[in-house]
Amino acid sequence: MFRCKSLSVWKVLIVLILSSLVVSSSVYAQKATVTILWRDDPDEVPVLDTLIANFNKTHPKIEVKAIVVPYDEYDPKLFSMWAAGTPPDIFWCAAESGYVDHAIRDMNFTLNTFIERDKKSINLNDFYSAAIEGATFRGDIKGLPFAQAYTAVFYNATLFDNAGIKYPATNWIDKSWTWDKMVEIAKKLTKDINGDGRIDQYGLLDTRDLFEIAWAWGGDMFDADVYKGYPPKKLALDKTKNYNALLKALQERADLLYKHKVSPTPATLQVIEQMGSPLKTGKVGMVISGDWAIWGAMPKNYKWGIAAVPYSVPNIKKVCLYTDPLEIARTSKYINEAWEFVKYLASPSAQKFLIEKTSRISSRRSLRKDYIEKISSFLVNSKRELEEVLDGAFRYCQEDAEHTVFGFYQLQSVWTSETDPLWLGKKQPKEVLDTLIQKVNQTILENLKKISK
Amino acid sequence: MRTNISAISKKEERYFYLFISPWIIGFLIFIIGPIIASLYFSFCNYDVVTPPVWTGLQNYKKLFSDPLFWRALKVTSYYSLLSVPLGIILSLIIAILLNQKIRGLVWFRTIYYVPSVISGVAVSLLWMWIFNPEFGILNFLLWKLFRIHGPAWLMSEEWVIPALIIMSFWGIGGDIVIYLAGLQGIPTELYEAAEIDGANSWKKFINITIPMMSPILLFTLVMGIIGSFQVFTQAYVMTRGGPHYASLFYVLYIYQNAFQFFNMGYASALSWILFIIILLLTLLIFKSSPLWVYYESTRER
Q1: How far apart, in Å, are the Cα atoms of B130 and each of B114, B127, B134, B152, B232?
Q2: Does any domain span residue B59?
């Protein structure tokens, strides 16, 4: 009796397992399932979902599925899926690792032949050249841009009106729009409104990273070939020009906090950031950052504007461009199908939808007018001024070092820690810079040892 | 008849293994497997994506010349050395107070336990507000009550660890419950006998409460030390190891190496060193326990 029962249990189990295998394999046999790894961004995910649904409707043989993970888990998920031998077919530099980190590990498929084959439908010339450069590794195109961001000055026009100050220049070659002038304006915008001895409204928040301010002051932290995908051998700060530029930049940034007192200290910034994106809180007059400062809904109780980044030193301008190229896993089973979807996401129609839903810019030049149309609805600038700002932002730019420099995140975490004492007002720029160079170079050496093996 | 029984018991044994197999398989695959794998990786150069390359003892050699390894070890030991004993003393005091016969005791016990229910990221975010040097309630109270300008707490290299130690007292409710159970298990006749002998409260505490509680203290000490060497969430959420490495806890450093810098081999070596440190500390405490832990059951022997 007992024996009989147990046998039947086993039988049922085996039949169930086998039948489910048969059913599932027969369902999937007809379709190529393409997975795309995405980060859990509340603006991006609904757009992606809609685009996937549209694509799946028109491509009966392909089924695209999104795997959405929190930002912090994006890289661990990507790398562990690789380790498990089941990489997502499509991924991008959504978190800390850049496409160069992926390319050096031979993770991404080279798209040159695909792009050549489909050049008519893609129209590579329509993309900003900086954006394509920002997806190129030692001459090979490793991704097709899907998302794009640029650097500019974003400001709270209401605070300018209240202080009776003219809005900053939109023309990038306006010689009168200098760093010193910006600091002057920032001083006027910095206010203790309720008179309790505490500043309630800050003039300026400069969120640029060290390599960006080095660019702005006419120097560079890395040699030129490092941005093309060749691993750094050391920081380029042994060159006097670069060293002096970064030293000056650090001094100027520290002065914003402790001399001019126009920028929030780390402690205050922490509070402001907990209230939301700093510009949107109304606590900051001007922000130098990527255009994420104006992503999503802008509070209606203020007017907003956008301007050119000022000259820190005469005749030199260089800001960061942030391109997000979609990469296809080299080991993907469905490279052709994945390419179809990547092409679709970079297509004018999908890009237009992205602009409409998120007020983000596209890497396609032809869609600039759509973007301007979209953002002019909530900015004080005229369309001509917006055209001017974007013109400069894409002319005086270079792709984000986080995407183009091998092992960038680890280097950045070293210099972020090393500059803490400077932003806390505990150490002087020179002292900080000298140890920083030594520590970052040490890390670079360690990383070199790893890839040489 | 006899063979029948043994057949049934054999069958039952098989069923035992069948039913426990999910756990055994899970334990082998998800616990033992990774442990062995991490031992292997600790001798390799491994970035997760490309296959591991055997490098012998290199990761362990690097570890001893890595200033951040020593920094992380120092930060963690400092935290552990202060937070564990202070936590034990504080929760024992509160447990003794909660063991008094007063009105509304149930409410007090609930109130002291409630914070332990909330944990992890939520508590970290809450304390970030409390510790904010300019707008936080802690510095506000220090100024209003004592006219003291509070330190920068999480933004200060000197104060970040003391701040996190203060925060760790948030979770002492769990220990309080264990101590309360222990206190209630002490026979009242011991106290009565001591009172007849003329012992005062302090003497009763030292000569009865502490010895009777010592097995429980041993347990919480061991768990506390293991827990304090594994601090991660607070540092990850609140300080990211800063400012200037001042809160670079050991496990945070492992995490950074494993999942942010993709030095999985080095992270594995770090993990094995942590395992050895915790093992040695635990052994040391257990070895020393006959000197200070009192077990009633061993008294007759």
Answers
A1: 18, 5, 10, 11, 19
A2: no
Looking at the fold, whether A83 and A231 belong to one and the same domain comes out as: no
CATH code, domain carrying A424 = 3.40.190.10
Interface contact A106, partner B, CB < 8 A: yes
Assess whether B22 and B134 both reside in one domain: no
DSSP state for residue A310 in the 8-state scheme? P
Query: In whole angstroms, what is the distance from residue A150 CA to residue A394 CA?
Result: 7
Q: Which helix (H) or strand (E) holds B116?
A: helix B105-117
ipTM for the complex shown: 0.85
Tell me the mean pLDDT in the region B217-223. 93
Residue whose token pair is 């409104």: A193
| Long-range CB contacts for residues B158-163, cutoff 8 Å, separation at least 24 | B158/B246, B160/B239, B160/B242, B160/B243, B160/B246, B160/B247, B161/B75, B161/B78, B161/B79, B161/B82, B161/B246, B161/B247, B162/B82, B163/B127, B163/B131
Contact A424/B at CB under 8 A: yes
**In this predicted model, what pLDDT tens digit does every residue of A82-111 receive, in sequence order?**
988 999 999 999 988 889 999 999 999 999
- Residue A342's domain comprises 30-149+323-375
Q: From the CA of B81, how many Å to the nearest CA of chain A?
A: 25
Pairing type for strands A202-206 and A136-137 reads unpaired
Chain A environment of B262 (Cβ under 8 Å): 75, 79, 97
Residues A115 and A178 in one domain: no
What is the per-residue DSSP string for B191-249?
Answer: HHHHHHTT--HHHHIIIIIHHHHHHHHHHHHHHHHHHHHT--HHIIIIITT-STTTT--
For residue B282, is it within any domain?
A: yes
Per-range mean pLDDT, top range of A261-275, A378-392, B114-128: A378-392
**DSSP state, residue A63:** E
